[in-house]
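Hey, I was hoping to borrow your eyes for a little while. For a while now I've been wondering how a particular protein folds. The fold is given in discrete form, as structure tokens running alongside the sequence. Could you read through the record and tell me how the tokens relate to the sequence? Take your time with it, there's no hurry, and the full record follows here:
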Amino acid sequence: MAAPKKNGMQTVWFQNPPVIISTASVVGPREGEGPLAKTFDHVINDPYYGENTWEKAEQRMMNDAVKKALQKASLQEKDIDFMLAGDLLDQIMVSNIAARTAAMPYLGLYGACSTMYEGLALGAMLVDGGFADKVLVGASSHYNTAERQFRFPTEMGTQRPMTAQWTVTGAGVAILAREGTGPVITHATIGKAIDMGQSDAQDMGATMAPAAADTITRHFLDTARSPDYYDMVVTGDLGVYGKRLAELLIKKSGYDLSGRFTDCGILIYNKAHDVHAGGSGCGCSAVVTCGYLMGQLKSGSCKRFIGVGTGALLSPCSVQQGETIPGIGHAVVIEARG
């Protein structure tokens, strides 16, 4: 007997769509200078955020985003059934420490830059499945912590190729609930890890684009929907080159996303920022979704969108050993209620 809430091969639908009752976003100085600046709850003016390390600054951003999301929903930590969170640091230490501070039942996630959407999908399953009344989902990243771990410490001044992306400094948090006011999550399409043999850690767009295209195409097939059902199709952080590649792959599968396809990594920065291919990192899709995209739904500018969190599943060790990089893409459908 088929699973009753399974829709096709990789998609699930929610009988009682979970409500996004609150979101919060905290971003760094560069992100606060960009075109989406007014959509964020708080912009810090110092990458150290008053701490003595960048890692502690990222922890503080996550803590503040959690507090802000709870405050906006008039909730306390004890009201949350589960906290789902992740980041880019070894052993997802930012999220672990945030969970220690918040003292909520905690499930740590790692999906690289797809983590926020992985969390939204799993959180929606917990709520719709009757396992939770309220779930908090969060993700964070910091340019300097990610560069130090995955590439080269910024103090070295290493030249970055044009395919490289700028890790977003920011933390985003969403609270899902069984009842309440706000946009709802109606479907989730869980992606496959797809590896096309790309091994360049400075070209994440090429790594993630095939996975994003596969998930988006699979969603259309599973749901028998066409792209024009959605006002927007938004990927997490493919950047300029990855977006072009994904669009070509999707079109090759028979779906034209012209006029409705965009990317969080492209939206968040101005060209003057010289971020090369665009933004990336766990915090990229987290803050753009919790800020700009939620605002588009609430204002009526957008009725529904499909967001696809994209991630490159690598580690410093795997790259050093010559391993190729699998990509992943998880999709979530978010609609304005009423």
